[in-house]
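Collaborator request log, item 7. Partner lab (contact: R.S.) asked for a structural prediction of PD(D/E)XK endonuclease domain-containing protein to inform their binding assays.
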Amino acid sequence: MNLEMNLEQFVKKNIKAFNEKPSSFKNKQFNDTQIKDYLRRRFIEKCSDVKFKEKILKNFEKLDYKRNEITEIANKECLYKNDVVHFIEAQIFLDIFKKLDLQELKDKSLEYIKEVSNDKQFNFIKTKLAKILEKALFLASIDGFSTNLLHINSGVMTANAGDSAEFLFVARAILAGFNASSVDVRSSRYDAIVDYNSTLLRIQIKGISQGGIISFRDRDRGGQGIDYRHETNRGKRITSEDCDIYVAMDKQMGICYLIPMSFADTFDDEKCTKIKLEEIEQYKENWEVIKEVAESK
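Returned to partner:
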């Protein structure tokens, strides 16, 4: 490889390999954060042209709206596939929901709930349910909480997103009635403390996307000049020695999975890195876990 090759030339030559598996793409000259940031800037610049955006959407339509075909579009246009995915998703959300009347959708939802419910029970909660549905449907119409509106570079955004998951949990815990606060020491193995009846619980918090995979292992250290294969840079297993409760925070909707580490410790080293959300469904919004863990101490 020509050492004088600049980032633009490098990306054009390697875009297919990068889009195939960005997290595993290693290069001594440019790291994945530099590549993502360059591609993000390129995508934002190209999106200033309305015709370009229309072309992306028409090409996706020609590919019969198949998600696995987006990589083909990204490679052809020399773009990061995740940027294209997010753009297409946002446009389709807008396209679908601009045709819908959210008030009518709410009313139809209430009608369905009434059909499958006890009339007296339904009438008792109808007013409150209608208000909650109105808020929930609006949030659904915009694909959940807004993210990275200022196009912050990916390295900074990753760190900021981690902080946002921590703050979301602490806010949710306080709203639920618990005394909770963040831990400011970055080297700490836990991110927050919850005080339940004078018992202090250590909470580790990881942000996830809905449908994502939970890992009870830290990420490997990466970046320019770092040997990710060296043992000292490999992610460490998260166990009950590090924290009492592991919280997986869905950053899209603010949903919490509160997982006691006594449960997490039962997985072997291979399984612990790929836990599906359906496997921890019993801990979804299960705030009783805080009480149970505290009382077990």
